[in-house]
Amino acid sequence: MIAGTVLSGVCAYAASGQAPPEVKLWRLDCGTTYIADLNIFSDTRAYPGQGKALTASCYLVKHGDRYMLWDTGLPASMKGAKIDQKTGGAMITKTIVEQLGELGIKPEQIELIGVSHYHYDHVGQAESFPGATLMIGKRDLDALSATPPAFGANPAALKTWIGGPGKSMPVTGDRDVFSDGSVTMIDTPGHTPGHHALIVRLGSGKTILLTGDLAHFQENYASSGVPTFNANRADTLASLDRFKALARNLKATVIIQHEPADIAKLPAFPKAAE
Ligand SMILES: [Zn+2]
Question: Which of 53, 69, 119, 201 is in the most buried spot, having the most CB atoms within 10 Å?
Fold first, then answer.
């Protein structure tokens, strides 16, 4: 079904004689966190006594003249917050709107917000884009809308779309965002029930795979570690298995969104990967 959708999109451009729209990808800085007890990311307790600094990353996709954000990072209210190296914490240095401003892009130009899942460090600045359509896994949308909301799901951070006037697009399975195979939300449940990763095929033909929170750092990805707070262990392992096979088969560059060492896999802002 996915292959059919991808093929029909590609064929539509071939039939019209038009070149497919150019696709570019920017990495935005959406904050920093310090995790004082790394074992929260391992239900087999692989990291006793260890702490680690993680990054929070968001991404801007340009498809022709259309813009999509992938994840919206930590809340803007954390700008300049202090991080305690003993107890942990989170902060941002620049908002998404400020970074878009450096690219000459206004918030109203963001047509789509895709979120990997509902955790606070991925939906934090969504409300800066109330006119955008929210693309989110249907099971995550259901968890946000439940009474009470699921653990870790804060509907207040998405109030424009949860019970508000914003347009949301619940995603079941995979979703070919622009109907041409260039950007695809990949169904990878486990961390949360409706978690998604993202495939971006750039104009150059290079393929980037963004993990969402399928893994939080490189060793955790390599060892298929499962965080203690995931919604479902079996789903997490199945999703990691699928994601790694996709990465191999597409010869993709895998970017773990919270891994500081993966920032350099994309050009440094304000440069885009093309
Ligand atoms: Zn996260």
Answer: 69
